[in-house]
Write a structure and sequence with these properties.
heterodimer; A: 8 helices; about 85% helix; B: mainly alpha
Chain lengths: ~220, ~300
């Protein structure tokens, strides 16, 4: 049997190749978050000084909604032609499949953030007053927090009626501390009022706790029949 | 159930009436807040009851997940024992002792740890196998009701005393709200999911929710120290007479919660029995197709029910 890592890599490359050829999820996410940004600009129209305080919240709300679009697609692809059932009976460890999906979503959402961040800067006339490099760990840890639980709950909501509706209902309550951490950290860095270290540690703790929980329980969810 | 339930219901009603009388007429009026504070006798007991029920839900869910395999069951048992021993000894270690908030005694923390571990084994002993899931759903549903009472009575009290309905950065308010949201999503999941897998998925979600609560608590704890909020409850100490009434109130609420849980548990149990019996009846019909068509048409339905009785 192949090692866990090689199976993960194989599934990941397959997913990325599929996404690269169709670009379904990425296009939908990009356009969706663009719409969110434009609607926010119309509804708030803030000054540069004010926008520094609110943009942390707006950015993450936009990414959270956009991420749900991608997360809903994660497993739907595997349902066609009973691919998921094939996974279930195959001797490949369940967690390598899970990690591949998480990494795939992570790459996708990070790409989205990298493309959308300049738009936020342009629309809100942002100038970072704190240490700007800290936005990178905040973005990476925050994205991981959203994506790891999101992938897990997407797999969970596969087994429910109206699954597209179910994912945000399960994901958002659990994500509240992570969202709070991301928003507070981003605001702290943008305004430069106070250090963001605590929130970065909080996000790191959240990531470690929930990645462990997901890995421990994913097999139960995948095999639930 | 038939005989004891009405008796217990009467006792609970009398107890609740007594607690109401104590809360409204016997307990002294608060020096600063006046009579408004009396809502505390509903607010705080509901909160304690809700937290207790959520804790029962968590324990039942962990037990349910662990009971899938003997090996996981053994592992979970030892993890709980280790947590209990550490929780019992740790509060007495001087370094940890200093970290405890003022007014919290090491002995009380140690007792709490022991009680929690005891809970785990009691629930495992008296609710074997599938009844664990029954217990979990009952506790979650009743817990959400009590938590809703907490979230409604809180702002009613806060408006005259704090001058605001809701303090967004406050630690207890926000963590209770998040707890409520998590358990509502738990109930939504149960509602939207189809029979067979629901129980496992719900148990998994309950574990995630339990992991989430401490994180919420710490995130806001820091948030609040950054931006101090107005008074909470007006200081730590409480008149002993008030505390007595509060405890009486809590006991009455616990009786009430127990009563409701019992009825709900029984109802859910009967519902599953009926489902199972129906499924068995369908299976035991020799001709599988007649069972399906029996449900579709009325005349066939009569035949099938007649056969079922014989």
């Amino acid at each position: 049997m192949k090692s866990v890592w090689s199976i993960t890599l194989a599934t990941l490359t397959k997913d990325i190749r599929l996404e690269w050829r169709s670009k379904d999820a990425l296009n939908a996410m990009l356009f969706f978050s663009l719409l969110v940004v434009v609607i926010f600009v119309f509804s708030f129209d803030p000054l540069a000084e004010e926008s520094r305080h609110i943009v942390g919240g707006l950015v993450w709300v936009a990414f959270l909604f956009a991420a749900v679009v991608a997360l809903n697609q994660t497993w739907a692809r595997e349902l066609r032609n009973q691919v998921l059932d094939a996974y279930r009976v195959s001797p490949a460890p369940a967690n390598s499949l899970f990690m591949a999906k998480v990494l795939g979503n992570f790459i996708l959402v990070t790409l989205l953030e990298a493309l959308m961040a300049p738009l936020f800067v342009v629309f809100y006339n942002l100038r970072v007053l704190g240490p700007a490099w800290q936005l990178i760990p905040v973005a990476l840890l925050g994205t991981w927090a959203l994506v790891v639980n999101g992938t897990f709950f997407a797999a969970m909501s596969l087994r429910t009626r109206s699954r597209e509706l179910m994912l945000p209902l399960l994901l958002f309550p659990i994500s509240i501390p992570a969202v709070l951490g991301m928003v507070a950290a981003t605001t702290a860095i943008l305004t430069g009022d106070n250090p963001a270290h605590f929130y970065i540690v909080l996000l790191l703790t959240y990531d470690v706790v929930f990645t462990t929980a997901c890995i421990a329980l994913f097999e139960t969810v995948l095999q639930a029949e | 159930m038939k005989k004891t339930f009405p008796i217990l219901a009467l006792v609970t009603a009398a107890f609740l009436a007594y607690a109401f009388y104590q809360a409204m007429f016997v307990a002294p009026t608060d020096a600063l807040q006046g009579d408004v504070y009396r809502i505390i006798y509903y607010h705080v007991p509901s909160a304690w009851t809700a937290f207790l029920l959520f804790f029962i839900n968590f324990v039942a869910s962990v037990q349910y997940l662990a009971s899938a395999k003997p090996s996981t069951q053994r592992a979970a048992k030892w993890i709980v024992i280790v947590i209990g021993v550490v929780g019992f000894i740790a509060p007495f270690v001087p370094q940890v002792k200093q970290q405890l908030p003022v007014g919290m005694y090491p002995s009380s923390v140690a007792t709490t740890a022991l009680i929690m571990v005891g809970f785990y084994f009691l629930i495992g002993k008296y609710f074997p196998g599938k009844s664990l899931d029954l217990l979990a759903v009952t506790a979650a549903e009743v817990g959400v009701v009590f938590c809703t009472i907490v979230l409604i009575t809180g702002p009613i009290w806060a408006r005259p005393v704090w001058g605001i309905w809701w303090a967004p950065g406050d630690i207890r308010l926000t963590s209770t709200l998040v707890l409520w949201l998590i358990y509502v999503s738990y109930l939504v999941l149960r509602r939207f999911s189809d029979s067979a897998q629901t129980q496992k998925l719900a148990a998994v979600l309950a574990v995630f929710g339990a992991l989430d609560v401490p994180l919420v608590y710490f995130s806001i704890w820091f948030f609040r120290t950054q931006h101090p909020q107005p008074v909470i409850g007006g200081g730590g100490s409480m008149d002993p007479r008030m505390l007595d009434v509060l405890l009486i109130s809590w006991m009455a609420f616990l009786c009430f919660a127990f009563l409701v849980c019992w009825a709900r548990y029984r109802l859910e149990w009967l519902r599953r029995e009926v489902d199972e019996a129906e499924a068995l009846e369908t299976l035991s019909d020799n001709d599988g197709s007649s069972a399906v068509s029996a449900r579709a048409g009325a005349p066939l339905n009569k035949i099938s029910s007649g056969r079922g009785k014989a």
